[in-house]
Amino acid sequence: MTADSLNEILQRTALAVATSIDRVFGELQVLEAELVAAAAHMPDAPESTQFSFLQPLFEELLVKNSPLIEGGGIAYAPGSLGDAEYWLEWWRMQPNGQPKFIGHDLNPGSIRYYDYATRDWFKVPAAAGHPIAVGPYIDMGGIDVNTVTLTVPALTSHGTHVLGCDLSLSTLEGIFLRAVRTPEPPLALVGRNGRIIASNSPRLVIGTRAAVDEATETVLVAPEKYDVLPWTLLVMDQQQ
């Protein structure tokens, strides 16, 4: 394989991945704008029911972007609501093609308490103040599988809420493989944490850490938006 053809593979793969993710981020930001506009007219401690208008919007987003998106919803800033210290609304696509609300145990005294405020998918975008892809990670207490969450912070006078979507890594890997079109050389798509999101080699397993120092070439998926999509394509040694 010539250097030119390898570069072509890397560039078209980066473009295919970035384009699919950009579309979802764009739709999440539309919902974020709706939330921020509505929150501006709410009292200091609004009730969770005042945000019920988001449910059909999230359901529409999930159906429209399935199977790339497996689930999505919103996590509210702790202490921002008048009727709940913590509140998380999340929907997950079902085999019948419809979203279903997924309940989480938000009672701090419970053994199964899901402390979303300590999870990176909530903390990172809230601290950064801009959209960002988080993962892959195993969301223990959530769906208990490797996932990547696209997150968008919503800054309101009540606090910073976080809207997010869980990607189907199998669907994303399909996008990746259709762009790569070759089993050699071994390529890996990795997140900022160095864990593999997709690859064209059975030796490069999703969720495991890539041997970044063994890569023979690296290409940023979205060089102008690395703070939002901090993903890299790695060309691995042929022995990988």
Explain how this protein is built:
The protein is built from four helices and ten strands, in the order H-H-E-E-E-H-E-E-E-H-E-E-E-E. It has 240 residues and is an alpha+beta fold. The protein has a domain at 19-169: Beta-Lactamase (2-Layer Sandwich), CATH 3.30.450. Strands 3-2-1-6-5-4 form a six-stranded antiparallel sheet. Strands 8-7-10-9 form a four-stranded antiparallel sheet. The radius of gyration is 19 Å and the shape is elongated. The mean pLDDT is 93.
Can you give keywords for this protein?
240 residues; alpha+beta; six-stranded antiparallel beta sheet; four-stranded antiparallel beta sheet
Topology:
Elements (H helix, E strand, L loop, with lengths): L2 H37 L14 H12 L3 E7 L12 E6 L5 E4 L17 H9 L3 E7 L7 E11 L2 E9 L1 H12 L6 E4 L5 E4 L15 E6 L11 E5 L4
Antiparallel strand pairs: 1-2, 1-6, 2-3, 4-5, 5-6, 7-8, 7-10, 9-10
In this structure, how is the largest beta sheet organized? 6 strands, antiparallel
Q: What is the topology, as strand order, of the major beta sheet? A: 3-2-1-6-5-4
Query: H/E series, N to C?
Result: HHEEEHEEEHEEEE
Strand percentage: 25-35%
Structure classification: alpha+beta
- Low-confidence residue ranges: none
CATH architecture of the domain at 19-169: 2-Layer Sandwich
- In the CATH scheme, the class of the domain at 19-169 would be Alpha Beta
Helix content: 25-40%
- CATH domain topology of the domain at 19-169: Beta-Lactamase
CATH superfamily of the domain at 19-169: PAS domain
Task: Give the tally of β-strands.
Answer: 10
The global form is elongated
Helical segment count:
4
Average pLDDT works out at 93
